[in-house]
Design goal:
By secondary structure, the chain is mainly beta. 6% of the residues lie in helices and 49% in strands. The protein starts with a strand and ends with a strand.
Amino acid sequence: MSIDYFNIRLKNSIGPLGADVIISQCIATGQPFYCSKVHRGNGGTLYLSPNGYIEDVNVNAGGLSTRGFDINASYTQPLGSWGSAALSFVGTYLDSLNVNPDGNVKYDCAGFFGAQCGTPSPKWRHKFRLTYTAPGGIGLSGQWRYFSKVDRDVLSSDPDLAAAARTAGSDRIKAQNYFDLVLTARIGDHYQFRLGANNIFDKIPPVLTTPAPFGNGNTYPQVYDSLGRYIFAGVTLDF
């Protein structure tokens, strides 16, 4: 078993400030640095015509930092003539994910997603696997994948994040559980076959009522299973 603490800091990061940050800081400070990036179209609109937009290009002015814990554990128990059983666990606790797009703005995205925080950053995620291997080389392995709930960043108490309006049905993604199963068989000294299914219960991804910022459509396929049950088969030949 191992428990590792990580504390990573990046200075002078390159990235956009974020449209919400630009608007909120322009209103709060009136600084030309922010307000000059707000371009209004006819009637003061920011989106109804090409003349209305927020200029949000990459700048080399910010910083990122994150800290938390990585937990790894494994155990194998021989079962005599019955073969063996094994457990493995990998988990990450995200204590903080601080984004500092410039010197005036800093917010924590741990446990949030949205227009400012981007893809979901669950505070806790893990993989737990249980494997049984028979004496003849036949194995059965099950895995549980878990992601804790995340809230839309506008629900944060940080005023730098709570600047946008809330949207019903898009404020929270519940905790997600996925279960995988794989059957393996070793034949002789050279062949190993495997047949399995990820997301065996064919769970659909969490769907928001509005487009997912930095996602795809109304969900986040880079975090959650978006295609449902996935069946695979393969063979390995050792020379």
